[in-house]
Design a protein that fits this description.
Layout: H1 3-6, H2 20-52, H3 58-63, H4 69-89, H5 93-113, H6 123-132, H7 139-148, H8 151-178, H9 185-190
Helix pairs in contact: 2-4, 4-5, 5-8
């Protein structure tokens, strides 16, 4: 299946054939570009703190056995921040999306193999939630945390970390495989794709 096949709707196979041109020329390219922009801007958002302190993750990346950390930490920052902008506009989409897909898959692996432990539920944190947490949680949320000491809350946080990593990995992987689409810098200005 090619990108042309992916965004082509044969009129004879449609219930509403008159919608085919709209789907081909507007709806599907708009959705493809919109999702690409969303993935790119999410990477920019996550990369911004790393760009501000490019060496802040040296110990973290070395803990994942990426040596030397002084090289990988800034590279990770640039890949997320600059790469996110490139994906958002559709510039060099496939190679940048592939690099980010690998990085996001490692992120998923990290969240899956290093779950948030009970240490995150410190007595001080629970005391805060019970006494002054009203500004940050609803009364129902505080009651849920108080019932089991925060274990169910921690499970939800863990599941969200893993699920978001899977979603972003899959999304970046789509653009690594299929490219930026018809409304991308690659296709509109460069007239070439990887």
């Amino acid at each position: 299946m090619t990108m042309t096949d992916l965004f082509h709707n044969p009129r004879e196979k449609m219930i509403l054939p008159f919608m085919g041109a709209f789907y081909d020329k507007v709806a599907q390219p708009l959705a493809w570009a919109g999702f690409r922009v969303m993935i790119g801007l999410a990477l920019v958002y996550e990369g911004w703190p790393k760009i501000q302190a490019p060496l802040a993750q040296v110990a973290f990346v070395e803990n994942l056995h990426f040596y030397p950390g002084w090289l990988w930490s800034p590279l990770l920052a640039v890949m997320q921040f600059v790469g996110g902008f490139a994906i958002a506009v559709g510039l060099l989409t496939r190679p940048i999306a592939l690099a980010n897909t690998v990085m996001l898959a490692i992120t998923w692996w990290f969240h899956h193999s290093h779950p948030y432990g009970a240490a995150i539920l410190t007595p001080e944190g629970l005391a805060f939630l019970k006494s002054g947490g009203q500004a940050n949680f609803t009364p129902a949320g505080i009651a849920k945390v108080a019932v089991d000491g925060g274990s169910a809350f921690l499970v939800q946080v863990q599941e969200k970390a893993e699920m978001l990593s899977i979603i972003w990995t899959g999304g970046a992987g789509l653009y690594a495989a299929f490219g930026g689409g018809s409304w991308s810098v690659d296709r509109c200005m460069l007239k070439k794709e990887f």
